[in-house]
Amino acid sequence: RFSKSVNLPLAGKKVVVTAGPTRERIDPVRYISNFSSGKMGYAMAEAAVKLGASTVLISGPVDLPKPSGVRLLKVESAAEMLEAVLAEYEDASIVIKSAAVADYRPKEAHAQKMKKKEGDSSISLERTTDILKTLGAQKKNQILIGFAAETNDAVAYGQSKLDSKNLDYIIVNDVTDPGGGFGSDTNVVTLLTKTGKTFPFEAMLKSQLAAALLEKIIEEERTTVH
Ligand code: CTP
Ligand code: CA
């Protein structure tokens, strides 16, 4: 499935990477989001470019420069990210879902700033669409790679996400590990494959880790009979 080119094994392949958090609007001045920095996703996109892929980076709001060689599509909400990813899915060879998509959004986004009032207040939330699960359900030949951000029982939770979202690989991230996590330049992860293999990676720079992960996945794809 992959070019024999040692240097550019992803030449001629389209890789779609999502990165960063999403923002779900409450009103014109407030939103719900998370601490994702986008660094791991941007590193994955840069690694894909270096391996020769035609790379599309679909990014939530982050404070990072555009990596050279990628086509950058900026989005804000989970709904916008879903639409952008679906539009790029059909001819993609690999989809890497590094984004920390918000699981909930306010039921209504108020058109005007909400005013404070006496006593308690609450916002009604509803679930966002699970983008990765949607991709898994309509997968043809694409290789689907997910991330799992966990604080406990990371590998077990990662395994269940690999299965339930119909993924080929999942990169499990214990965000409490002192060697990595949100905002850090380094990361410690475990790669799980749908064929039942487990590859732990040592703490390293996110840029190095991204290259090492793609290299391992390409090697697996070359040696695994589907
Ligand atoms: N994901 C997604 N769409 C969502 C939520 C998650 O595509 N609405 C993707 C993420 O990009 C990631 C993977 O699913 O690749 C796992 O995300 P994670 O937040 O770890 O898992 P969830 O399935 O959302 O479960 P939970 O947050 O409850 O652990
Ligand atoms: Ca989640």
Automatic annotation (TrEMBL):
Keywords, alphabetical: Decarboxylase, Flavoprotein, FMN, Ligase, Lyase, Magnesium, Metal-binding, Multifunctional enzyme
Substrates-to-products reaction catalysed: N-[(R)-4-phosphopantothenoyl]-L-cysteine + H(+) = (R)-4'-phosphopantetheine + CO2; (R)-4'-phosphopantothenate + L-cysteine + CTP = N-[(R)-4-phosphopantothenoyl]-L-cysteine + CMP + diphosphate + H(+)
Listed EC numbers: 4.1.1.36, 6.3.2.5
GO molecular function, one term: phosphopantothenate--cysteine ligase activity
Keyword Flavoprotein among record annotations: yes
Note on how the cofactor is bound: Binds 1 FMN per subunit.
Binding-site residues for CTP, renumbered to this chain: 103, 113, 147, 161, 165
Residues annotated as domain DNA/pantothenate metabolism flavoprotein C-terminal: 10-218
Chain residue ranges for the region called Phosphopantothenate--cysteine ligase: 15-226
Metabolic or biological pathway, per its Swiss-Prot or TrEMBL entry: Cofactor biosynthesis; coenzyme A biosynthesis; CoA from (R)-pantothenate: step 3/5; Cofactor biosynthesis; coenzyme A biosynthesis; CoA from (R)-pantothenate: step 2/5
Names of the cofactor(s): FMN; Mg(2+)
Purpose of the protein: Catalyzes two sequential steps in the biosynthesis of coenzyme A. In the first step cysteine is conjugated to 4'-phosphopantothenate to form 4-phosphopantothenoylcysteine. In the second step the latter compound is decarboxylated to form 4'-phosphopantotheine. Catalyzes two steps in the biosynthesis of coenzyme A. In the first step cysteine is conjugated to 4'-phosphopantothenate to form 4-phosphopantothenoylcysteine, in the latter compound is decarboxylated to form 4'-phosphopantotheine.
Family from the record: In the C-terminal section; belongs to the PPC synthetase family. In the N-terminal section; belongs to the HFCD (homo-oligomeric flavin containing Cys decarboxylase) superfamily.
Protein's name in the database: Coenzyme A biosynthesis bifunctional protein CoaBC
Gene field: coaBC
Span within the parent record: 180 to 405 of 407
